[in-house]
Structure formats: C-alpha cells, structure tokens
Design a protein that fits this description.
Radius of gyration: 28 Å
CATH architecture of the largest domain: 2-Layer Sandwich
Number of domains: 2
Number of strands: 27
Number of helices: 20
CATH class of the largest domain: Alpha Beta
CATH superfamily of the largest domain: Endonuclease Chain A
Structural class: alpha/beta
Distance between the termini: 37 Å
Strand content: 15-25%
Largest sheet: 10 strands, mixed
Length: 709
Amino acid sequence: MTPTELLKKYGNPKNFFNRDLSWLEFNRRVFQEALNPELPLLEKVKFVSIFSSNLDEFFMIRVSGIKEQIVANISEPSFDGLTPREQLISIQQILKPMLDELYILWNNEIVPSLRANDIILHNFDELTKEEKEKLREYYEKEIFPVLTPLAFDPGRPFPYISNLSLNIAVLIRKTNGETHFARVKVPSIIPRLVQIDNIISSTKNKNGNGKPRARFIWLEDLIIENLSSLFLGMEVIEAHKFRITRDTDIELQEDEADDLLSVIEENIKQRKFGNVVRLEVASQMPDFMLDTLIENLQISRDDVNQVNGPLGLSDVMVLYKLPFHQLKERAFFPVVLKDLEDEDIFNVIKQKDILLHHPFDSFSPVVEFIKRAASDPEVLAIKQTLYRIGNDSPIIKSLIEAADRGKQVAVLVELKARFDEENNIYWARELEKVGVHVVYGLVGLKTHAKMTLVVRKEFDGVKRYVHLSTGNYNIVTSKLYTDIGLFTCDTEICKDVSDVFNYLTGYSQQREFKKLFVAPINIRQKLLHLINREIQNKKEGKEARIIMKFNSLTDPIMIASLYEASNFGVKVDLIVRGVCCLVPDVEGLSKNISVRSIVGRFLEHSRIFYFYNNGEEEYYLTSADLMQRNLDRRVEIVFPVNSNKLKDELKTILEIYLRDNVKARLLNPNGTYNFIQRKSKDKQIYSQEWLMDYTIKANKKNKKSIRTK
C-alpha cells in the first residue's frame, strides 16, 4: 500500500497515542526507578535528577510549543485527535500527582536515608553556633560579593529572570513602614549544595567513627539566613524561593541566512528572552507574592507549580558523584576487545568487520582509530560528522593534529544540535583555525548521521575505512548510553559513505546508494519496502517477523505500515525506550504487535532493525528513530550488517532485550506501562546486567569470533 492508502486505512485518531502524553509516561518510568526499593540509594538520587532534568527540557521545548499554538488560536488537532488546549490540560492533570509523589519520596524517604548513610542535607537551624558562624564567614567572603539584590518599585522595573535560574523573592520593610518587593538571584557559579565539612571541619569528611561523611546546606538557604546583609537598615519580613522555565525552542530562518554560524549565535542569545512557560515556587509562598510574580512574568495560575521541597532537583546529581560506592550499583569498566588491544587497527578492519556495543565494549578503539589516522603518514584524508561533541574531546584534538600534518580533513559540525550549539560553535572555530574544512550542514536539515571516513594510501592502491554508529562521537555519553558502532572497509559501504559526504559538503545530487539508506532521500521508502516484503512473505504462507529497537516511534505512516503487517499476521516486536504513538495489542489493528520499554542503568540509545526475510535474515543499524523529523528533515543513515557472525551477535542482543523481565515494561492498549510479570520459577533477566557479564566473560575467553567476521 502507498503511504496515502495506509493513512486512509489506519488514520483514525483512536489508533494513535499523543506524543507528549507518551513522553510523560516515559518520564514516569524514569521516576519509577527512583521508587524502586531494590535500587541503591544514590542510584535513586540519580533518577530523581534525571527525571527533573527531563521535565525542564520538556517544558522548554514541548510545552512551550503547545502554548505558542494556543496563543496563535490554533485549534486543529494533531493526528491523535487532541487539540493544543486539550494536550495542555492533560499534561497538567498527569503532572501534578507525579510531582506530589516526587516530593513525598524526596522528603520522606530519600533525605532521611541519606542522613542515615552520613550524607546530610542540613537545615540552618540544626547547626551548632560555631558552624553557623563559620558558614556566615564563608558567606561574607565567597557568596556576598556575587549577589545583586534587585528592587521592584515605580522607579525600578521588574527585574529580568533568566531561564532555569533559582531566585529568592524578598519582602522588605523600610524604617518608614513602607514594604517593597525585591529579588535576589542565587548564583549558578557557586555550588548549589555547599559542603559544610569542607568549610568548618579540621577532620574533613569523617564522622565520629572515622567513616566517610558529607554534610551540606542548600546555597539558597544560606543566602536567606544572611539576607539582612543585602538590605542594610531595613527589615526582611519574609523570603521565598522560585524558579522559572522559558521557551528555548527558537525558530531558525535558515533560508534567509548568509552565515548560519552567526545566525545560531544570535538565536542562542534570543533564547534567554523566551516567554515564561512555567513558574515553580515553594509551597509556603504567600498569595500576594505569587500574584506579583504571575502578573509581572505575564503568566497564569495554571503555569504555576507549587512544591514542598527544593526547587530544581536536577542539581542533586552532585550527590551521586560522591565517593560512597556502597550506595551505588557495582562498578563496571568497559572492555577493550582482544583483537584491538595490540594490533594495528587498520590491519584488523582490513581482515574483518568489527562490531562494538557500548558501553559494554570500550569506546577507546573509536578514539584510537581517529588518533591513528591523524598520525599515520599513509592516511590522506579524514572526513567526519560531529553532532554532540562534548568538552575536551580527544577526537577534536586528533582532527586538529591531522590538519597540522597536512592531511585533508573535512568535518561536518551540526550547529543545530539542541543545547549543544555553543559548544559546537567553539569546536567549529577551533577546527577552522588549523585549516580543517568545516561544514555546518544543509539548509533546513540537521545532520544526525554518525560517520567517519579514512582514506589511506596502501601498496595496492587507495583504500577506504569507515566507522558508522548509532550514537555520538562523545567519550562521556559512550559510557552512559547503549550504542552500536561498526568498523568496515566494505567497498560498497565505503563508496556510499563517500557519496553521503559529497552530498553534505558539495552539490552532489546522489539519489541511489549501494547499501546505505539515507534520509531524507530514501529511508522511509526503503523501510516501507522491507515491511511490505514481510507482509508479502506472510501472504504466501511463509514465516515473517520484524524486530525494531529505537528511542521513539511517532511517524503516522510507519505506524500504519506496522498495523498493516500485524493484520496480515506478521509478528512485530518493538523495543521503544521513550515515546511510542502506536497502540499495541488491539484486535483488528495491532494484535501481533508488542511494545516494551527498558529503562535502567544505561540510557538505551541503540537502534537496530531486524527482518526475517524468509530465512535470509537482515540486520540494520541506524542513527534514526521512526519520527517525521528523522525521516524527512534530517540527514540520517541506515547501514547493514553483512557478516553472519556479527548478525549472530545482534541476534543475541535483541533476544536478551526481549527476554528482560526485570527492567522491561510492556505498553498496554490504554497507554500505560506495566512491568513484565514473571513466574516464581522464572530466572530473573536484566538485559543490561546480562550484557555486562557477557562482555566480560567473552573477552576473558578471547572469543574474538563473537564480534568479528
């Protein structure tokens, strides 16, 4: 069926979940990890931080977009049938009880448990007189000089409040009895949690038994206790904390830009002044003070979240970094494959394709590949795409070295990688300084594909080597995200990668590729063809099966094609970490489709597509999710895995994800998720733990054939 026919057949709004409500369910699964009684304490703290950080971004991007539609009087429903106003109401109804539960957990369980384990978040009042004096000295020396109280009166307008900043609303009384509102910004350049023992104790970070201890006070509480120093000669009547979230999703007019870099720099500045979409306040804030904020921030009561606890809980990630290892999951150190420890990496790739499954396999061979390419006198050129680079990147250093050595280096730095724009602009300029050919991408498209191409002169001619990946060239996230990378010198794949780079850096109009699928050119059509092939095989009485693992599924056409496959009897297993707009397990629609989500220690980020193909099984890896933006508005690649042994490895990975009965949750037809129910006799299988053990054991036994051709 054509895409139009698919949408006509399956386009009823009841056949789709709302994207944003599905995202809230994903963040609920993150929060459930913080509620997990079997999880070590600091792991719970980590998930509280991740949940809160996720929510910040959700408001900055998604909620802000919905509110813009409402302001513009857009009442047209999305493909799931909800209007913008209905979406916003549903979001508010879902979030309130979730936030109430979050602060009950924080106040009643996590904070007391931290205290019981010598990680103490103190109230100022419970400190000794000596401790209070020492902290006042610290305040006067380190904090007071940074603070700027801003008054609000007829002569001084309401102060600008920056995005995600923590603030203190203060009511002061002059000697003549007049009362005034003032605002004090809590400085972000000072640690949010002030570690007390580092300031006042001669036996730092030890309790009475000599065991590790960490005692903190919230920075904003310390400031509130010393507010009189900012308002000399006046009485501080009361003070309450608040925090705002602004719209940061600034639209780029790329087609009108002469210089994309300068346009994005200007848009980053504009982001600071986006409309306020959320106001978080301490529950004790009185109505008159809240009304003052609402009026001057130009929001409504519906935009206010009143919470009973610390604002901005994303900042508690600092507690997770404490060296209290007994309060965390067992340490895991990524494994370097035996094949890659000593041998020349180009010789290894020449002999066989190599699959790396991060973070179980170390990312260091990828860094070494680029480092070796930079120093190898036989390497003529290096081409690479960079999306989220990270700080102090060794890959950037190698690219700079390669340029210094006179090699041809071309790098596509995606300046539009959300919230990484400033970092990417910095690295783009550093690369340009040494003569690297830097490209910022195509107008109207983000380049999300992850590719490295190395051209090397050898005794039998010029040879190309490539690394393709589902994830970023970022050494930090490679230890936190699950991703899969492939090294190969397959002639046709290398030719395709060269053509994609020519498409990105020049004016190539290449539309046909030997082995790669490339968005926005043909990924959608190719995937629809592969799904239709399974349908045709099923019609002919053959076995048919599809397994897909990715982060998000929102594209209506792809969802409709999977419904069509289900209705012809094709078994479809989807492993979707985050948003899923497909409704599973509905008779006459999706009875043969199951959807599971795994939220665990590592962020599931790898994308794997499997098609049974009448026994000639095909496996593909990709940087793309099944979303309209990935298929139509980004440069993405889908690349095949051709080696039978590597296919076996991917089969093992997919099977263990499908057998997970510890962290896997099944999506119900009503949009909720439930943990998979296991029988008492069933062996517990947690896929990520299993893969950690599997990788270590395989490497110890030197099973090189596991991940090589």
